[in-house]
Amino acid sequence: MKGNPAEIFAMKSPDEIRQLLEDHIMTLQSVGASKYSRSVKSLVAKWEKDLMKISDCIDLWMKVQSKWMYLESIFSGEDIK
Q: What is the pTM of this model?
């Protein structure tokens, strides 16, 4: 990885992404519940599972980022360096 090691990128609030994920998950659940979706039911279930994984990943990412931002000041202190 090239660049300044002190340069840190942080994810902004993913509220818009979360809302889109929730909307699409609900749409997939509606499609999956339809009696006309038998031929695509397995595909719909896979998409729903994938979107749930993405949502879980974003949640974990935000938790890790929050903890890192808290600890960053501790590890960037001169006495620790």
A: 0.75
